[in-house]
Automatic annotation (TrEMBL):
Name of the protein in question: NAD kinase
PANTHER family given in the database record: NAD KINASE
Cofactor: a divalent metal cation
Native source organism of the sequence: Bacteroides nordii CL02T12C05
Source species, domain of life: Bacteria
Residues the record lists as binding NAD(+): D72, G73, K77, N145, E146, D175, T186, A187, Y188, S189, L190, S191, A210
Gene3D superfamilies per the UniProt record, alphabetical: Probable inorganic polyphosphate/atp-NAD kinase, domain 1, Probable inorganic polyphosphate/atp-NAD kinase, domain 2
Entry similarity comment: Belongs to the NAD kinase family.
Active site per database record: D72
């Protein structure tokens, strides 16, 4: 098989398992192609002696499977590079939580034995698309986790007039608003009180950040519905964060959010079940009194 590999280039310990990964792949006679930035990090900072079949920049690659080695942030960057290529992504978790990258380093050998024999599943995860007239945001308008509309720095809260399929929903007076996919429901949205959504539910969650009114609650809608957002701010601008990549927007910018025309494919081991992940990652059912 041909693998394209992305990795964390900020913390050496998060890439410390890369050497083991390359050894396992070579044992399976795999073709290894590395993101150039990751390759230079491994050679210069990690002092690894590696000889990939090739290097690539940006999204200029093809492969049978993409490997992300790092945390969920690294996985999101890999997903943005994969885009609509329809290449499945395997996430090896060397970070902390690991909802997207859920293969532990200890599982690598067994996982690639299973991949070699075709014993794995591929899940399709929906993606959000942002449409607006801001050229900076349109450079990379797709989000696997969420699109967040946020106030800037220490400015006062913003007003976000929200419509669904053209019908007025409400005007949120808040520090921000998070529009998340089911995949992103366990990320930023969850941290501000949003619901956990199973990956294949075909929904979108709308979760306010620190709303002014306590009777404003998250709402879950169908993922084939379209949202329109008009933002007012005393500073006359606000932030838009697409999977953590943020840009400043003028308050005259109308934002339209809809389901993207493609999905991201995520490689899963057969014994990795979403509910097991919830219990282990979020410690559901754990009793600290014992």
């Amino acid at each position: 098989m041909k693998f394209a590999i992305f990795g964390n280039t900020y913390q050496a310990k998060k890439s410390s398992h890369a050497e083991t990964l390359f050894r396992i792949l070579e044992e399976h006679d795999a073709e290894i192609f590395l993101c150039r930035e990751f390759y230079h990090f491994l050679v210069s900072d990690m002092k690894l002696n590696i000889h990939p079949a090739g290097l690539f920049d940006g999204n200029n690659f093809s492969a049978d499977m993409v490997i992300s080695i790092g945390g969920d942030g690294t996985f999101l960057k890999a997903a943005s590079r994969v885009g609509d290529k329809n290449i499945p992504i395997l996430g090896i978790n060397t970070g902390r939580l690991g909802f997207l990258a859920d293969i532990s380093p200890a599982e690598m050998e067994k996982t690639f034995n299973e991949i070699h024999t075709g014993q794995y599943s591929v899940e399709e995860r929906s993606v959000l698309q942002l449409i607006c007239d801001d050229k900076h945001l349109q450079c990379s308008p797709y989000a696997l986790n969420e699109i967040a509309i946020l106030k800037r720095d220490s400015s006062s809260m913003i007003s976000i007039r929200t419509a669904i399929n053209g019908a007025f929903l409400t005007t949120y007076q808040a520090d921000g608003l998070i529009i998340s996919t089911p995949t992103g429901s366990t990320a930023y949205s969850l941290s501000v009180g949003g619901p956990i959504i199973v990956p294949h539910s075909k929904t979108i969650a709308i979760t306010p950040v620190a709303p002014h009114s306590l009777n404003v609650r998250p709402i879950v809608i169908c993922d084939d519905w379209e949202l329109t957002l008009d933002v007012e701010s005393r500073s006359h601008n606000f932030l838009v964060a697409i999977d953590g990549r943020s840009e400043t927007c003028k308050e005259t910018t109308r934002l339209t959010i809809r389901k993207a025309p493609y999905a991201i494919k995520v490689v899963k081991r057969y014994d990795h079940i979403f509910f097991d992940t919830l219990r282990s990652k979020l410690m559901w059912g754990a009793d600290n009194r014992i």
